[in-house]
């Protein structure tokens, strides 16, 4: 037990996501059959799990850095990468996980509470793995049929956490140094704590499981308390947190002490004062009973000594006047231990029911708020103001830049391969659709101004160029309307020759306008007399006419006369 560790700082990192693949499928007679790059695998997560077989945080002091496996890269033929394996870290039941506060290189202290693993099997994801990048097969759609890029995998979450163990025990034994707490644990259970005749023999909490008939419960021996323990004196403040989750407090009082100015009643009041001082600093878990409201049991120890037996008989009525149950025991002769064991077992059963009732009441009082579902409606990109934030910043030299922060922009920057012009253009399209460029213009940004996306080590800075929002490929000498098109694919695509609804509508209107023009022209000719009754031979010179006689006209008569001459 000398190696007992109940507080440690651990650096955890989730696995990185694998990169997507930008493969092109090639078959016989089809050298360019479309994209077939697979997605990258997700990275594994670092997960703490409450394990009943773990009893200390010692392993994390020796190996404080824990990293999960990363996902693998996607491959061609739409083969997705494998997911990284989660890293499962067992911790004792009663472990609380906090954020780590403190400057780099200094001892970390607990910050915000992240998780409270109070039951066997409770889990907490301390560092989530990064998402794998999409391959170009997943990025392809009707308008972007041949993406020449893929997304990169996201890095796993990385941070420091503080693990703090608060023992899960039903009964807490408190008392002055050398009051016999460790001896009582050894006599009532199978635990073998260190026992000696000098103060502060117990340097770490000792746990023991007591079997009394059908009762089974756990007792915890808290290292000796002294006046001022709640302020950090002695060992009390370091280990007082181990009684926060107990249901019953047992005062073990030494009736055979030879120290001056010590008596059982004053010892009891001194310890109660320290407990009250410490209780004001606590944030109790769900269902926990406040320390002042927990039942107390008085154990007058070492009654095998004649003087101690006389003192126990003398002070017992005073404790009973306070409404406290008193037991006279001897860890040497085991006198009174059986009665104490059964009494504690019955009281533990009652308190467990009370704690369960309190937990249920507090769970019922919790208010769960769920967002309203809006079916059939999509939020436009211009209304997504909560997804990002643009700030105009300056330094002492007068340099101005714009910082863009937000979950989506920062994720997109991490996923972008800046060695690929098409991938950069795709990022620009996404930012423009989100409304980042409109917000930059609103705040006075001009082309060439510095823009930074994100903060810290992962920030990306570039000169803003709004014109990059257009297509990146220029296969036929002109910019394409959508990124990821390939003329070689569209040339043999029957869908490329299919008219759109707009084209069909335009051709229909052109046809109807032409018909109307013909009808107007014919009506004008009819009114002008260009049309006649077909039964009337109004052109006798027309030999092709049904009624024409083919008579020669003036020109024909003149031609015939000249031919006769």
Q: What is this entry, summarized?
A:
By secondary structure, the protein is of the alpha/beta class. Helix content is 28%, strand content 19%. The chain folds into three domains: 7-165, Spo0b-associated Gtp-binding Protein, Chain: A (Distorted Sandwich), CATH 2.70.210; 171-364, P-loop containing nucleotide triphosphate hydrolases (Rossmann fold); 388-468, GTP-binding protein OBG, C-terminal domain (GMP Synthetase, Chain A, domain 3), CATH 3.30.300.
What labels describe this entry?
GMP Synthetase, Chain A, domain 3, 19% strand, OBG_GTPase, alpha/beta, Rossmann fold, magnesium ion binding, 3 domains, 6-stranded mixed beta sheet, nucleotide-binding, 28% helix, GTPase Obg, 565 residues, 14 helices, 5-stranded mixed beta sheet, Spo0b-associated Gtp-binding Protein, Chain: A, 18 strands
């Amino acid at each position: 037990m000398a190696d007992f560790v109940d507080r440690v700082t651990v650096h955890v990192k989730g696995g990185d996501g694998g990169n997507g693949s930008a493969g092109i499928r090639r078959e016989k007679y089809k050298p360019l059959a479309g994209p077939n790059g697979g997605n990258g695998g997700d990275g594994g997560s670092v997960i703490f799990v409450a394990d009943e077989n773990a009893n200390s945080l010692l392993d994390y002091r020796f190996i404080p850095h824990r990293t999960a496996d990363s996902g693998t890269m996607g491959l061609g033929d739409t083969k997705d990468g494998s997911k990284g394996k989660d890293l499962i870290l067992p911790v004792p039941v009663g472990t609380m996980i906090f954020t780590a506060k403190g400057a780099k290189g200094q001892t970390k202290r607990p910050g915000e509470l992240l998780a409270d693993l109070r039951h066997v099997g409770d889990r907490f994801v301390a560092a989530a793995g990064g998402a794998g990048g999409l391959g170009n097969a997943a990025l392809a759609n009707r308008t972007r049929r041949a993406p020449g890029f893929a997304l990169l995998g996201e890095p796993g979450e990385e941070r420091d956490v503080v693990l703090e163990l608060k023992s899960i025990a039903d009964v807490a034994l408190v008392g002055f140094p050398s009051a016999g707490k460790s001896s009582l644990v050894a006599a009532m259970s199978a635990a073998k704590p260190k026992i000696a005749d000098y103060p502060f023999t117990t340097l770490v909490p000792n746990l023991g499981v007591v079997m009394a008939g059908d009762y089974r419960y756990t007792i915890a021996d808290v290292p000796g308390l002294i006046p001022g323990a709640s302020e950090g004196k002695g060992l009390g403040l370091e280990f007082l947190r181990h009684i926060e989750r107990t249901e019953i407090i047992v005062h073990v009082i030494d009736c055979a002490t030879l120290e001056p100015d010590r008596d059982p009643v004053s010892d009891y009041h001194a310890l109660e004062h320290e407990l009250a001082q410490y209780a004001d600093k606590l944030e109790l878990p769900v269902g926990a009973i406040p320390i002042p409201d927990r039942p107390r049991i008085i154990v007058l120890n070492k009654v095998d000594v004649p003087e101690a037996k006389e003192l126990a008989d003398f002070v017992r009525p005073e404790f009973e006047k306070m409404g406290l149950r008193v037991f006279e025991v001897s860890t040497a002769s085991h006198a009174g231990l059986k009665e104490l064991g059964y009494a504690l077992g019955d009281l533990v059963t009652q308190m467990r029911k009370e704690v369960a009732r309190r937990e249920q009441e507090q769970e019922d009082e919790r208010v769960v708020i769920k967002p309203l579902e809006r079916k059939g409606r999509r939020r436009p990109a211009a209304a997504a103001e909560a997804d990002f934030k643009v700030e105009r910043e300056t330094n002492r030299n007068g340099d101005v830049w714009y910082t863009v922060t937000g979950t989506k922009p920062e994720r997109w920057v991490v996923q972008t391969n800046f060695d690929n012009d098409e991938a950069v253009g795709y990022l620009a399209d996404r930012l423009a659709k989100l409304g980042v460029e409109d917000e930059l213009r609103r705040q006075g940004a001009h082309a060439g101004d510095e823009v930074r996306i994100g903060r810290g080590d992962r920030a990306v800075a570039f000169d803003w160029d709004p014109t990059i929002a257009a297509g990146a490929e220029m296969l036929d000498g002109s910019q394409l309307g959508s990124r990821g098109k390939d003329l070689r694919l569209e040339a043999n695509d029957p869908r490329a020759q299919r008219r759109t609804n707009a084209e069909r509508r335009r051709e229909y209107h052109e046809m109807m306008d032409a018909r109307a023009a013909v009808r107007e022209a014919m009506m004008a000719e009819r009114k002008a007399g260009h049309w006649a009754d077909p039964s009337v031979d109004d052109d006798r010179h027309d030999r092709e006419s049904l009624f024409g006689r083919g008579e020669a006209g003036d020109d024909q008569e003149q031609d015939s006369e000249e031919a006769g001459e």
